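User: I'm curious whether this sequence folds into something compact or stays loose and floppy. Could you predict its structure so I can see for myself?
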Amino acid sequence: MVLRVSEQTDRPASSARRSSGDRTFFDRFVEFAQLKVSRPAFFALCVLVVVVWLASLPLWSDSKTWQTVIHTVASVVTLLLLALLENAGRRSEEAAQEKLNLIAEALAELMASRAIEDPSLEDAVTKLRDAVALEERH
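Assistant: Here's the prediction. I'll summarize afterward.
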């Protein structure tokens, strides 16, 4: 049985791209956050926070508390950004894998059509499809 690329249904990355209307609020938020934190403006904001924190030293009676504030804020923001960016990275990897799988399937289809003229390609087609199937399980 020859499985055509258009007949395959278990493709989470492509289905998420195709049905953008039914993405969750969290999915849209992660994409928005990734877009914003990867810009120079976010870096400038971080530098501004550090400069304001440094300038605020005279306002604090205890320098240990002053240091604790920036460490706490930085730790919380880092934890949240790490979770969001890891989620975005995972989705990006799934999309890249989906594209590779589609390219491999298209190549397998092309090789299968050529196998009629050159039967030695049939073994290569089988190996290629088996390799793609292994990737789909992840």
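Summary: Residues 1-9 have pLDDT under 50 and may be disordered. The chain has one domain: 21-136.
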